[in-house]
Amino acid sequence: MLDATTKARIDSARDILVGKVPDPKSQVEQITIALIYKFMADMDRQAEELGGKPSFFKGEFRKYRWPDLLDKRLGGHERLLLYAEGIERMNENKNIPQLFRDIFRGVFLPYRDPETLNLFLKEIDGFTYDHSERLGDAYEYLLNILGTQGDAGQFRTPRHIIDFIVAVVAPQKHETVLDPACGTAGFLISAYKHILSESSERSDPSGSSDSHRPLTPDERARLMTNFCGYDIAPDMVRLSRVNLYLHGFPNPVIHEYDALTSEERWDERYDVIMANPPFMTPKGGIRPHNRFSIKANRSEVLFVDYIAEHLNPGGRAGIIVPEGIIFQSQNAYKALRKMLVENYLWAVVSLPAGVFNPYSGVKTSILLLDSALAKRADSVLFVKIENDGFDLGAQRRPIEGSELPAALRALQDWKNSRPNGPAGQTHHAVPRKRLLEAPDISLSGDRYRQVAVRGNGKYPKVTLGEESLFEVFSGGTPSSSNATYWDGDVNWATLVDLPADELVSDLRGTVRRITKKGLEESAAVLLPKRSVLVSTRATIGRIAIAHVEVATNQGFKNLVIKDFGRVNERFLAYAITRLVPEMERMASGGTFKELSKSNFLRLEIPLPPLAEQERLVAEWEGYRKLIEAARQIVAHYKPILRIDPNWQMATLEDLCERIQYGLSEKLNTDGKGYRTFRMNELVEGRAVDNGEMKRIVVSEAEFKKYQLAKGDILFNRTNSFEHVGRTGIFSLDGEYTFASYLIRLIVDRKRVDPDFVNAVMNTSSFQKEIKMYASRAIGQANISASSLKKAVIPLPPLPVQRALVAELEAERALVEANRQLIARFERKLQARVAAVWGAPSSPSSESSAPSDSRK
To answer: Kind and range of the H or E element at 811?
Structure first.
């Protein structure tokens, strides 16, 4: 696990460089070069301390020794010239391994400021080569800043997605492993850690099998020769070799190699292949050699074909692919899908569209290949993940409710014991025969899911294309380059105008407006009031009723009602909410899925008599008004702690019996050890067990030093600037501890109530003040325990503290009751709308509609 000191040192090294070396990739390269330089010096020093001789800095290269470089008698310009010359010549040093010579090839010092170099080398001097995985974890943290890796459609794969794929594919200690587009070697290192974890932590107490016993030295050495990576970019090859070396690989096998155009390694086969290959194809396409089974010039098609063809018999693969692989209609894509379904594919995992944010919003999926399992199972499993544990914004902030653990269980069940088993809430199986019978052999799971929309209701059904009732218009967008089209008087709706949390929204204005000229010279159509707007592109199924004349962009299909004597617009809008799953199933396309106008017109809704429609709408609106009222309370509630300026003030150090950093041991997800709080589990001022907590394995004696007790306060000391300082109080039963990036405060209960301290620490004023102590690096902030101790809070008498806390708790209980009310009435509303189709209501939905208290 990355300890706080090492992490802070990396942040500091980057902060020193950023003024002179603004490019993150160049920062990583300069830190990489300096670390290897320092580590060679450390190994020479260790050899001399044991009575040996230096191996690296000898002969003409002795003058570049690290101790001489840091000699205080050396002037700043002399040190700069010596270091610059040393790194530029180091690839000529025959005394160092070829791996290191390759790392130093072509490097140079990109700045000439002695003070910057002095500070930088002083920070690097704090690192010591000790053969531990700690350095590897530190280097992975450094590589995280790379994010995007060039302009060829390459993006750093999020660590949790890599670990998920590795857990599914489950490489074994005797197997060979390849990543043909390895980048910084994330898949290879995750696979290596997985094997070590499986070998060391899941021993078989019966002694009947050696599959989970610790690795022998010979097995570990052989394991390191079984891993291989290719990458076309020399800088990625360099970084991946360093990354593997720092994780204990003495001679990393990483080749600078283009798997798509070179035949040199075509005959090599592997037991396990995992990759996130480039999504982008150069202009004019790829010109591959003629040994591929699928004839194509698109890089994503060729990479998937390459991986499938280079598996050993019984081999397995996990591949991240763009949506084009899933449902593009060109011949090469269809031929690839046919080959996969017939011979290799056993599961498809759909990922959220924002997994690669902020670098790309491209929608991706994971293809899982195993020819043996594909032959055994006559169906393919489709798993849909909508929450991967992070929001889909640019910052990808952690959130609760990750579906990855449940998806992993479903995949493991399918793979290990129940191929062809029943569907689940987030997964379902589709027979291979049905996939192959589809005209485009689409791998979009939703297309094959059975959606129960049309019940045996008592009302006749009409299509949305019924010309006597509706006229349907698509939208349009004026040219953005013509200023005369914009900032006019015409409302122009986009998805941002329809709130995501409303079942049916009321549109009374728009964020952007266009001119009449922009309307006339584009495909946009001005819709009358009482029109129903339905989003049908990318985000499908947001619905609004227009209370103003409005045009929309092309992401909508819009219904203009022709006969209000037969159709109520609000009934129509609510009825369409029931069709959203079917609309999603019918949508198709590349980067953005879209429901075609022809499919939209075929959708059916029940149509009761107008009086019945109005009665139903009145009932549904009663639920909606309650939901909206409760939502306003939840959205606008902010706990306010009334502070009397005459109260005594005290520092947290004075009020606490103990202020303590958490455990630094490695966290795990295998259920072993003690449940461990991290920042994610601090929610709205509370330490919350979400059922998916990671754990730490330590001795009982060590655990007792860090065991949480009710009333302990946890403070998040390191994260993004937005999240640093998050605070929550612990009040659970059971055995829990906390991770190193949290600080525990144990208050003196004779002087102060812990709930009061927690409430103060969650106020905006305290959060603003404590963040003034934060040291900041790019994307990261840190508040030390010594800074936290200096923080000052008010200290009223204990009875006053307890009265204030009781008042806040009463308010919080009311807010939570409103959350529960929202969930309950949303379920009731959806059930009552479904009943129009004849779908049965759940018992909890059978109570009468809420009445209007004003009657």
So the answer is: helix 798-835
